[in-house]
């Protein structure tokens, strides 16, 4: 799944407040600025378009894209989002690698893109720490790097980081569950986490626990860590169900492993609790809309960040900014908001649900 150990958090209250929008929000570049720093005598033209990237063809930009193997629904959506956004621009050529979970192989793929002298690199590293040196190599070669989600160990290895908010994901899941159970005495919740040796899992659990502190009537009675796979989700959920004969809510960190969790729930014939998913798969959103099972919500970790990364890379390559900010340069770090998708707002988010 995704890893983001250091990302700063924002406190936006809705999807419309996110720094970067989604594919459903339109194809325009979003809230980040990058200009050539030319003042034009301190004035802009009527539309301020001289230094602002837009949909109109401009300077041709070759963007290199390197990510992990698309062996997970979310990662597959990342690759799809990047490719589809690049196709939107007539002035963008995307050089995409096959994707690999092998660090040495991914390093080699990035080095090939560096040798091709692409204008900008977008990198979602399989392991941020392991790929830091190749990020540094690109930056030293004069190729700006947009670091996507899993962060490098050094800020010198990237020009801009953009990714999701793991702590906020857990926090919002906890607050949603808390509000549903706030009037229930001695409410019990369980947690089906991801891979425990990943910082992202620890951040999600911490956010969840911190949120529950606001609801003294709720106690987390059990936690199991799975591996972001269907098989592990089913096995670990079955263990939770055997150990806990009755509880009121379940938070599952990942919608892909949630497929297995739902199988275990159905096999056990349990339905006394509500379930909140994580990441925002289309399958889960459709279940939320249908509203005939335990799934009531999912907390987003938007793969649309990859489309926004292409927007950023294009702006960097053209030396232009993006409308909506006063700053001359794009921010060093951009954190997407982890919105909670429920029956009330699911139609808004369905277009960005991943398969």
Summarize the amount of helix as a percent range: 25-40%
The stretches of 5 or more residues where confidence is low (pLDDT under 50) are 1-49
Question: Whole-number radius of gyration?
Answer: 21 Å
Q: Taking strands numbered 1, 2, ... along the chain, how are they ordered across the largest sheet?
A: 2-1-3-4-5-11
The dominant shape is elongated
What's the end-to-end separation, in Å?
A: 14 Å
The CATH architecture classification of the largest domain is: 3-Layer(aba) Sandwich
Order of helices and strands: EHEHEHEEHEHEHEHEHEHEEH
Number of domains: 2
Region (Disordered): 37-58
Keywords: Signal
Domain Periplasmic binding protein: 63-320
Pfam family, one: Peripla_BP_4
Please give a quick description of this structure.
With 355 residues, this protein is an alpha/beta fold. It is 35% helix and 17% strand.
